[in-house]
Specification:
By secondary structure, the protein is α/β, with parallel strands linked by helices. Helices cover 26% and strands 25% of the residues. The chain contains five helices and 14 strands. Helix 1 crosses helix 5. The structure holds cytidine-5'-triphosphate.
C-alpha cells in the first residue's frame, strides 16, 4: 500500500506573469508554459482531473471535453487570487511550474502611458509574495506541493534543496537555465527527504509523462 493516497485532482500552474509598468508595458519573462501544458495532458491521460492555471502569451492549452479546467492569469496578483480560490480546497497536488515574477513595479503609472523624457527612467520595484510557499503553508495532510526551480548547473542541487526547505515543499524539479523556452528538459526531481532522480534529457511531453508517473506513485 502506498503511504500517500493516489491523487484525484492536480492543479498545475504554468507560464510567465506580466507585471504592468503602465497601460501598455509590462515586465515579463520567456516562459512558454509548454511544460505545464504537457503536464496537464499527461495528468489527464492517466485519469486525473486537471486544473491548469495558465499565464499570458503561452502555448495553447489542450481542450478536453471533461476533466480539464483552464483558468487564465496575467499578473502575480491574479495568480495569487486564483490559488487562494483553488488551494487547498480543489486539488490534492499542486505543481507550481509558473515562472512568477520576483519583483513588480511598485506603482504602475496610473492610466495611459509613460511619456518619453530625455533624463531616463527609474522604476521602483517591490518583491512579490512567494505564492508556492504560501500554498505549502496552507496544505492539509495528504496534500503535496511541488515547485520548480531554474538554476545554473553549478548550483542546481544545492539551491533547489535550499528552496525545498525555505518554501516548505514536498519536492522540486530543478532545471538548468537553458530549459526556459526550449524543446527539451534535463530536469532533476528532488524530494524533501533528499531522494533525487532524473530521467535524463527528454522532450517536454516525455518528461511530463515521467513526472506525472512519479507523482502518481507518491
Ligand atoms: N514562486 C512563487 N512565487 C514567487 C516566485 C516564485 O510561487 N513570487 C515559485 C515558482 O513558481 C517555483 C518556485 O517558487 O515553483 C521557485 O521559483 P524561483 O524563481 O526559482 O525561486 P525564488 O525563490 O524566486 O529564488 P531565486 O532567487 O532563484 O529567483
Amino acid at each position: 500500500m502506498p503511504s500517500i493516497p493516489r491523487p484525484d485532482t492536480v492543479l498545475i500552474t504554468a507560464g510567465p506573469t506580466y507585471e504592468p509598468i503602465d497601460a501598455v508595458r509590462f515586465i515579463g519573462n520567456r516562459s512558454s508554459g509548454r511544460l505545464g501544458v504537457e503536464l496537464a495532458r499527461a495528468a489527464h491521460a492517466v485519469g486525473l482531473d486537471v486544473i491548469l492555471a495558465l499565464g499570458p502569451n503561452t502555448v495553447a492549452p489542450p481542450s478536453f471535453p471533461e476533466r480539464l479546467r483552464v483558468d487564465r492569469f496575467r499578473t502575480c496578483a491574479d495568480l495569487e487570487e486564483l490559488l487562494l480560490d483553488l488551494w487547498p480546497g480543489h486539488a490534492d497536488v499542486l505543481v507550481m511550474a509558473a515562472a512568477v515574477a520576483d519583483y513588480r513595479p511598485k506603482q504602475p503609472a496610473p492610466g495611459g502611458k509613460l511619456r518619453r523624457h530625455s533624463e531616463g527612467l527609474t522604476i521602483e520595484m517591490e518583491a512579490t509574495p512567494d505564492l508556492v510557499a504560501a500554498c505549502a503553508r496552507r496544505k492539509k495532510p495528504g496534500q503535496r506541493v511541488i515547485g520548480f526551480a531554474l538554476e545554473t548547473q553549478a548550483e542546481l542541487m544545492s539551491s533547489a534543496a535550499d528552496k525545498i526547505r525555505r518554501k516548505g515543499l514536498d519536492a522540486i524539479v530543478a532545471n538548468p537555465l537553458e530549459t526556459m523556452d526550449a524543446d527539451e528538459i534535463d530536469g532533476l526531481l528532488i524530494r524533501a527527504d533528499g531522494r533525487h532522480e532524473s530521467p535524463g534529457r527528454l522532450s517536454k511531453p516525455m518528461f511530463a509523462a515521467w513526472l506525472i508517473d512519479r507523482i502518481m506513485r507518491g
